[in-house]
Amino acid sequence: YWTRDKDEIVSPVGSTYARTVKNHLGSIFFGSFVLTIVNLIKWAVQYITYKLKKSGATQNPLVKFILCCLNCCICLFEKIIKFITKNAYILIAVDGHTFCRAARESFGLIASNVARMTAVNWVSWYLFFIAKFGVAVISGILTTYWIESKYVFVNDNDDSTVSSAFAPAVCSFILAYFVSGVFFELSDFTIDTLLLCFCLDDLKNRQTGNYYASTRLLRFMAKAPKMKHHSQ
Asked: Which residues contact residue 158 at a Cβ distance below 8 angstroms, ignoring those fewer than 6 apart?
């Protein structure tokens, strides 16, 4: 994103790994440590909840209400920390800041572009949902076709045949939906990275109009296409 002449880029993945190992391992470990602390607190709360349920203390409506609120707050706090950590890692890769500074600046960027980021995230969520659903449907159809062509029902004594392809097709649909979600998560992370880079690009080059973003990205983000930039 931050290279105007894309022909100058040589082995971007390898150089990124080398730069990460050389300069940013401390930030990665610190972010992982923060997430570990949050998970330890979450597990401790879940263990306490389990013990209280086992002892029958949750029969008290007040105790049950407090535990529900506590678990809800912990889950929300975990999601917030994961969100901040993810965007901090992106900004660490962009500017090379420490984890705390990157987390602060990324949060400021998101807060100042909340409407823009919300709109793009909703669009991407909708498109990825359609894509995952489409993959799942295709998997279910192919499973049905394969079973009906290979394992047609013959008689009750034949264990190698099935009477219906419905159950395997449903299992295939569910499995394909979640597996495709894992792969589309990478694309979603890429969109978040481009979006945060664009917000930083807009902050740095708003006055000059000399954006690093491509014309298509500028148009998509509702920016004037006549700004001065040299990306392709």
From this structure: none
The structure tokens listed for 46 are: 């879940």
User: What's the rounded Cα separation, in Å, for the pair 92 and 102?
Assistant: 6
Task: Tell me the per-residue pLDDT of 196-205, one tens digit each, with 9 for 90 and over.
Answer: 888 888 888 7
Q: Is 94 helix (H, G, I), strand (E, B) or coil?
A: helix
Q: What is the pLDDT of residues 65-98, one digit of tens each?
A: 888 888 899 889 988 888 888 888 888 888 888 8
Which DSSP state fits 7?
G
How far apart (Å, rounded) are the C-alpha atoms in residues 8 and 109?
Answer: 28
3-state class (DSSP) for residue 230: coil
Phi, psi of 76 (to 5 degrees): -65, -45
In angstroms, rounded to a whole number, what is the distance separating the alpha carbons of residues 72 and 45?
11
Q: Are 171 and 194 in contact (CB under 8 A)?
A: no
- Terminal Cα-to-Cα distance of the chain (whole angstroms): 10
What span, in angstroms and rounded, lies between the C-alpha atoms of 171 and 17? 38
- The residue written with tokens 């299992």 in the block is 171
**Beta-carbon neighbour count of residue 189 at 10 Å?**
13
Axis-axis angle for helices 99-112, 114-150 (nearest 10):
100
